[in-house]
Amino acid sequence: MSGKYARATRTLRNSLTVAAMAAAVAAPFGNTAQAACLTNNADGVGNPVFGATVGTFVGLGIDPNTTCIENSVWTDPANFGLGTYVKGADGFGTATNPTVLGAYDGSGSAAANANGRDFAWVQDAGNQGTFNGATGGAPSQGIVWDLGGQANQVAVFVFVDHDPVPGEVLENTAWLSNDANAADGGWTQAQLVHVYGGGWSADPNIADGFVAVYQLPSAQTFRYVSVTWGGPGAIVRDGDNEIDAVGGLTERGTGVIPEPATMALAGLGLAALGATRRKTRKNV
Ligand SMILES: [Ca+2]
Ligand SMILES: [Ca+2]
Ligand SMILES: [Ca+2]
Ligand SMILES: [Ca+2]
Predict the structure, then answer these.
(1) Which residues are placed with Cβ below 5 angstroms of ligand 1, an ion?
(2) Where are the beta strands (DSSP E) in the chain?
(3) Separation of CA 106 and ligand 4 centre (Å)
(4) Which ligand sits nearest to residue 29's alpha carbon?
(5) 249 or 17: whose pLDDT is higher?
(6) Which ligand has an atom closest to residue 200 CA?
(7) In this structure, are residues 62 and 45 in contact, taking their beta carbons and an 8 Å threshold?
(8) Ligand with minimal distance to 111 CA
(9) Across all residues in the chain, what is the average pLDDT?
(10) Is residue 43's pLDDT more than 90?
């Protein structure tokens, strides 16, 4: 979003024809449920306009034997729902044409853009520090979503604002906690375990880029996710990211079971107590 991004965006806008042609060529790779994970360096990943291969991921530090990289389009598993925005966005924007790489403006609002899977995104920036040995945004200041229930994995729907891909796209770390307001040390890092090269929307849409699934290293579960720019889970750490939406998953990959909010429970308890007191008074 700074000067260099504006320049990159202008360059990409000059490549509209190339992008449109590549999008048309890429159409066949969708709808391939349960595709095998790609492990050959020469295998293309995502829309050809990205120019990404498995080798690109390997060069950025991703092991295709532990992170499944495939070209399928993400499909929602049973009971899957999107998380609800809590706080932490430092910017937002909306695709003006999701079939064109780099076509977006600054419209929308943090909550609206973060709550829908719709090519409208929120951004984390600033609050730079070193977390688990890598430069990135502070987990306590990341973009926080309520996943609605106890989750072991998080599906992060990233927005592709511009290339290089996947570096400029998988530029996040996902952290989980049961306290949306936890300090940095109260967030547990999840690992990138699966990349869906088709994104969540079949081509010609390309602004949906990749869907990235992050998983906790153990069977533990948490309710809130903080998505930060950079950090130990990212493959580029240049000060920002763009996220369309997120959703929580169980360890088995199904949607999390929604829980009532703690505050709502507390409120219900107080209301019940008040009702009991009123009833008692009336009976006296
Ligand atoms: Ca970006
Ligand atoms: Ca797509
Ligand atoms: Ca960036
Ligand atoms: Ca969105």
Answers:
(1) 161, 168, 242
(2) 44-45, 52-53, 68-70, 84-87, 91-95, 104-105, 120-123, 128-131, 134-137, 143-151, 153-158, 172-177, 188-189, 191-196, 211-215, 222-229, 243-249
(3) 13
(4) 2
(5) 249
(6) 2
(7) no
(8) 4
(9) 86
(10) yes
